[in-house]
Automatic annotation (TrEMBL):
<keyword id="KW-0812">Transmembrane</keyword>
<keyword id="KW-1133">Transmembrane helix</keyword>
<dbReference type="InterPro" id="IPR036257">
    <property type="entry name" value="Cyt_c_oxidase_su2_TM_sf"/>
</dbReference>
<dbReference type="InterPro" id="IPR011759">
    <property type="entry name" value="Cyt_c_oxidase_su2_TM_dom"/>
</dbReference>
<keyword id="KW-0679">Respiratory chain</keyword>
<protein>
    <recommendedName>
        <fullName>Cytochrome c oxidase subunit 2</fullName>
        <ecNumber>7.1.1.9</ecNumber>
    </recommendedName>
</protein>
<dbReference type="InterPro" id="IPR008972">
    <property type="entry name" value="Cupredoxin"/>
</dbReference>
<comment type="similarity">
    <text>Belongs to the cytochrome c oxidase subunit 2 family.</text>
</comment>
<dbReference type="InterPro" id="IPR001505">
    <property type="entry name" value="Copper_CuA"/>
</dbReference>
<dbReference type="GO" id="GO:0005507">
    <property type="term" value="F:copper ion binding"/>
</dbReference>
<dbReference type="GO" id="GO:0005886">
    <property type="term" value="C:plasma membrane"/>
</dbReference>
<keyword id="KW-0472">Membrane</keyword>
<keyword id="KW-0813">Transport</keyword>
<comment type="function">
    <text>Subunits I and II form the functional core of the enzyme complex. Electrons originating in cytochrome c are transferred via heme a and Cu(A) to the binuclear center formed by heme a3 and Cu(B).</text>
</comment>
<dbReference type="InterPro" id="IPR045187">
    <property type="entry name" value="CcO_II"/>
</dbReference>
<feature type="transmembrane region" description="Helical">
    <location>
        <begin position="94"/>
        <end position="113"/>
    </location>
</feature>
<dbReference type="GO" id="GO:0016491">
    <property type="term" value="F:oxidoreductase activity"/>
</dbReference>
Length: 293
């Protein structure tokens, strides 16, 4: 009895240590099994899949350890007599073949369901942004806009060697990204979206490379190219600035009126330059190299 009491105290202390080491974010990161929280509806669906898969793995692991412990205790050596040898056990073989197949089928089912929901496209998204990747920069075009200019080209933002391009998005609206590349394979990645899409030239460029998100949190988030695309791949950074729907509409109106990205952002009370990242220094034989060279 004393031994059991000691074991219980040690187990309780171990559990307390795990909870303490998990940090103060007990209600979030710990129970998400390390999965990032994300800021989109699609990220929440992927987070739920991860949590469910982790719980299933823990259940399977506990079952396996329980069977190992049962076999080790139930059939431990009790003497020098050789135990009865069994060559085949058809029911047991059927069980340990069928159970993994059922587990894989269930995980596959929920994975496909989540993937279909994440990649689902609405008939009429609230906003459409054309993302053009090129060595080594990004251009974001708001295709639904119509500025007061002679050519009437949509509002767009492109980065320079001195400024990271800022992609302004509204929260609580469905946003479609039509992603295209002007040269090689790139990859559009915003870590807080928990999603990335390779930008493959050709293949109905900008039509097949499409995904949608609904951002739920305001803030500034860094974006990157996640595909090695050449010498200055590391400089392909951008920033996502998610704002309220009212501020977004005001930003677009200011851009349509001729203001720059920085001026339009400052007009809605946002910093005019990126806050999550900054341009990397690019030099070649002592000379500055502009993005896109």
């Amino acid at each position: 009895m004393a031994r059991r009491s000691k074991l219980a105290r040690v187990s309780a202390l171990g559990l307390l240590g795990v909870l303490t080491l998990s940090g103060c974010d007990l209600n979030n990161s710990f129970w998400r099994f390390g999965w990032p929280e994300g800021i989109t509806d699609e990220a929440v669906r992927m987070r739920d899949l991860w949590i469910g898969s982790s719980i299933a793995a823990l259940v399977v692991g506990a079952g396996v350890w329980a069977l190992i412990a049962y076999a080790a205790i139930r059939y431990r050596k009790k003497g020098n007599e050789l135990p009865k040898q069994t060559a085949y056990n058809l029911p047991l073989e059927i069980i340990y073949t069928a159970v993994p197949c059922v587990i894989i089928a269930v995980l596959f089912f929920f994975t496909v369901v989540t993937q279909n929901r994440v990649q689902q496209r609405s008939a009429e998204p609230d906003e459409t942004v054309v993302v053009t990747a090129f060595k080594w920069n990004w251009e974001f075009t708001y295709s639904d806009t119509a500025p007061d200019s002679p050519d009437g080209t949509p509002v767009s933002t492109v980065g320079t060697s001195d400024a990271v391009p800022i992609l302004v998005l509204p929260v609580d609206r469905t946003i479609r990204f039509e992603v295209q590349s002007a040269d090689v394979i790139h990859s559009f990645w915003v870590p807080e979206f928990l999603f990335k899409l390779d930008v493959i030239p050709g293949n109905e460029n900008g039509r097949d490379n499409v995904f949608e998100v609904t951002v739920r949190e305001q803030g500034a988030y860094v974006g990157r190219c996640a595909e090695l695309c050449g010498t200055y791949h590391a400089n392909m950074q951008f920033e996502v600035r998610s704002v309220s729907g009212e501020d977004y509409d005001a930003y677009i109106a200011a851009r349509e009126a001729g203001q720059t990205t920085a001026q339009a952002l400052e007009s809605i009370g946002q910093p005019g330059s990126s806050t999550t990242t900054e341009p990397l220094t690019m030099t070649r034989v002592g000379e500055s190299v502009a993005a896109g060279d």
